[in-house]
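Fill-in record for Signal recognition particle protein.
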Amino acid sequence: MAAFESLSSRLQNVFSKLRGKGKVSEEDVSEAMREVRLALLEADVNFKVVKDFIAKVKERAIGLDVSKSFTPGMVVIDIVNKELTELMGGTQSKLAKANKPPTVIMMAGLQGAGKTTTTGKLAKLLQKSNNRPLLIACDIYRPAAIKQLQVLGEQINAPVFSLGDQTSPVEIARAGLQHAKENGNDYVIIDTAGRLHIDEELMEELKQIHQVTKPDEVLLVVDAMTGQDAVNVAQSFHEQLALTGVVLTKLDGDTRGGAALSVKAVTGCPIKFAAMGEKIDSLEPFHPERMASRILG
Ligand code: GDP
């Protein structure tokens, strides 16, 4: 995976030095932590997140009295692995399910983050476990967004509900949900409009869609390539919309990793899915422990 390449190789470097030592002094551990800290900062991880992370690793290392261990290098790596996993949410966070179908999933995010594409991918993932999702086309502003969703729907054989681009998105969402109820769809996924930047009008519209559809999940789609910015965007959306989760896209690119490693800690929202490509089947449930192991190599 191209993502995290530089962070990975830097961390591996730090740990190979430790691993080579039969005995590890407190200074060795401190030196290693200094290097881990720099590597994380360079990977665009939020400053405060890095600070807390290092403090926790140090605390654990002292608690375990690493210097007395027979394999001190391994112990430190294990601690870092556990803390990285915790940082990204600890365990996998599953999609919510409504007591009474349909489960309503609202997608939000800035334009270009990958919302429409992810809507299609998520539908495909749900179909794999025998669900019947309906996609609702509420992005009436971006030219071709509706068509894009329809093409995705055709590709995976999922119905797409649209009322064109002359009806208000709130109305479309309401009618789409009704349509799903009448047609026995167990999930609806609402593709909403994005903007290049967060603005009040967009937020107002999203809030209204939220009010009308009472979603079980509000997933923010963020482009992992945008690093710290992605985290700031997530925080703003969260304040307005009470997100239930984040989808990180473009993890196949050469993202430095900052978004993946900061977004949970900063917003409290778990990362639920990761997208790693343009293809329809490139969405996976996000597993913090697997991601941590990948980063540490
Ligand atoms: P929206 O404006 O948020 O709806 O964004 P789109 O779904 O139209 O996606 C914007 C661009 O990003 C498209 O060219 C997608 O093919 C691309 N894209 C989306 N997700 C991924 C991903 O995980 N990896 C890569 N490489 N490209 C992606």
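KEY FINDING: Residues 85 and 288 are 5 Å apart (CA to CA).
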